[in-house]
Amino acid sequence: MVTMQPIGYVRSPFADTQAVPKGLGAKHEAEGVLEIGAEFEPGLQDIEGFSHLFVIWAFDRSEGCDLVGAPPTDNRPHGVFATRSPRRPNPIGLTVVELLRREGPRLHVRGIDMLDGTPILDIKPYLSSVPPERLRRGWLAEAEARKGQSGS
Ligand SMILES: C[S@@+](CC[C@H](N)C(=O)[O-])C[C@H]1O[C@@H](n2cnc3c(N)ncnc32)[C@H](O)[C@@H]1O
């Protein structure tokens, strides 16, 4: 077993899962705050220099897991490790946010898709080294193409 201690909690406008934008083309522009515990604040030194952060967090209000399921972005089933489903063997979430500003242990960010009170496990600077032409978007690109064809 692996035991982890949250380093802080997300302050989000989303109180329940229905409120979070979902589906193809959903935009994640919501602003919120990553409230980091005082004992971890020294670990935020120099974070202001990064425009974007990886936030690693726990789906604390998700139960069970489906190894195969249809996500809101498609009506076809896919393996859980090919999706961002909350119902996973280890309920860990990963979100890239834009860092707007830091107020001591509070990081004001844009782009959250977490519920209010979500436990934060870790934060790392976002550094993408993958050139766009090397990225493949798998079934998601196919679902977007089908949606474009049907016009819905
Ligand atoms: C599709 S998941 C993607 C999350 C993250 N960007 C990822 O890729 O791991 C986003 C959904 O997780 C759900 N969610 C957000 N915070 C949660 C929490 N603390 N516990 C359970 N479900 C949560 C919301 O319904 C939201 O629409």
Give your account of this protein's structure.
With 152 residues, this protein is mainly β. The protein has a single domain (8-150), classed as Elongation Factor Tu (Ef-tu), domain 3 (Beta Barrel), CATH 2.40.30.70. The protein is 9% helix and 30% strand. It is built from one helix and eight strands. The strands form two sheets. Strands 1-2-7-6-3-8 form a six-stranded antiparallel barrel. It has a two-stranded antiparallel ribbon with strand order 4-5. The chain is globular, with a radius of gyration of 17 Å. The structure holds S-adenosylmethionine (SAM).
Keyphrases for this structure?
152 residues; mainly beta; Elongation Factor Tu (Ef-tu), domain 3; six-stranded antiparallel barrel; two-stranded antiparallel sheet; 8 strands; 9% helix; globular; binds S-adenosylmethionine
Assign an overall shape. globular
| Helical coverage, percent range | under 10%
CATH class: Mainly Beta
Terminus-to-terminus distance: 45 Å
Summarize the biggest pleated sheet: 6 strands, antiparallel, barrel
CATH topology: Elongation Factor Tu (Ef-tu), domain 3
Number of domains: 1
Individual helix count: 1
CATH architectural label: Beta Barrel
Structural class: mainly beta
Instruction: Give the overall average pLDDT.
Output: 94
Instruction: Enumerate the strands of the largest sheet in spatial order, edge to edge or round the barrel.
Output: 1-2-7-6-3-8
Our Rg estimate from Cα atoms comes to 17 Å
**In percent, how much strand structure appears in the residues?**
25-35%
Q: Going by CATH, what is the homologous superfamily? A: YaeB-like
Question: Low-confidence parts lasting 5 or more residues at pLDDT below 50?
Answer: none
The number of strands is 8
Order of helices and strands: EEEEEEEEH
